[in-house]
């Protein structure tokens, strides 16, 4: 079995989603203190959806623009990967110390 | 009635000027038809005629905008009250990009990547407009376009590889 890997941005996104629940892309950008960019956050989220770390649903808007907003949330698999990743990082850090 | 007269005058001006300027150039060539082609194109009036033709061309090129603006102003001055002081109708930012993205990319890429980017642009833009922060709105618009094209450029290699794979799989 291939061990799932998380990039720094994927880890940050998963952390935010696990901590705060469902979020919009723009909320993730605002919460990340400049670490996530507007232009690439959805590319990262799309890649994470391909890997099965996150899932999304649309929320229809009543402003007549025809453009729904998209809410993202972590999947069970994504949450487990994050937990395992953080444990692995922690054990490596403790091992170094 | 005043509105109709105003419209007639505006149309005469808008269509008349390029018409006259376009007529001036062939007339000049016709009246100098006995000269050689080199002599015609080195005549003293030629730069002036070319300039008039160019102005005519520019006016003709943008006549729709001229007409729409002139109509709006005429309606404001003479026309019905419902127009009031409202400005021209603006297309929301990102509308054209949305059409482009929907046409160019797959449904999944559009739904998951590009539409949310444009949605964020619209939200931030409308928020800035509501707060009467026009400069912020302009900045949001530029930043939104930048984000959209960043997303497109970041996604383009992935989409290209997927397309090549799909074609390869279909033709195998």
Describe the structure.
The complex is a heterodimer of chains A (97) and B (172). Chain A has four helices and three strands. With 97 residues, chain A is an alpha+beta fold. Chain A is elongated and about 55 Å long. Chain B is an all-alpha fold and 172 residues long. Chain B contains seven helices and no strands. Chain B has helices spanning 2-31, 37-41, 46-61, 63-78, 95-104, 107-130, 134-171. In chain B, helix 1 (2-31) packs antiparallel against helix 3 (46-61), helix 1 (2-31) packs antiparallel against helix 4 (63-78) and helix 5 packs antiparallel against helix 6 (107-130). Chain B is flat and about 70 Å long. The A-B interface holds A 24-26, 37-40, 42-43, 45-46, 49, 56, 58, 61, 63, 65, 67-70 and B 92, 98, 109, 111-120, 122-124, 126, 143-144, 146-151, 154-155.
Q: In one word, what is the shape of chain A?
A: elongated
Order of helices and strands of chain B: HHHHHHH
Low-confidence stretches of chain B: none
**Main beta-sheet strand count, sense and barrel state of chain B:** none
Terminal CA distance of chain A reads 30 Å
Q: Quickly count the helices of chain B.
A: 7
The largest β sheet of chain A comes out as: 3 strands, antiparallel
Distance between the termini of chain B: 71 Å
Return Rg of chain B in Å. 26 Å
Task: Return the string of H and E elements of chain A.
Answer: HEHHEEH
Percent of residues in β-strands of chain A: 5-15%
The mean pLDDT of chain B is 77
Biggest interface in this structure?
A-B, 21 and 27 residues
Beta-strand segment tally of chain B: 0
Residues in helices of chain B, as a percent range: over 70%
User: Which structural class best describes the helix and strand composition of chain B?
Assistant: mainly alpha
What strand line-up does the widest sheet of chain A have?
A: 1-3-2
